[in-house]
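Problem 12. The chain below contains 83 residues. Write out its predicted structure in token notation.
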Amino acid sequence: MNYLQRFNENKIYNPYDMMVGHTYKITEPVYDDYGEGLEPETDLVEIIRIYKGGIFILKNIEHGFTYRRTVGHLKDCIIETVE
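Solution.
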């Protein structure tokens, strides 16, 4: 396996590569109160705004609400492009 084959074309490995106005599938890890991993949550989101300090405003397409995530939180998530 060569170096480039290790990367998935649909995945984004750096949150700063996301662009405003585009749609992404984000899978967030979920943990209980004891740090045990639970079933991950997957959301279909649109990037509304990216602030300078690494704060992303996301809109959940299925439910229509907006929420905020930091770049540190998004680095723990699996981000995939949606066409």
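Discussion. The two ends are 27 Å apart (CA to CA). Students who got a different answer should revisit the alignment rule from Section 12.3.
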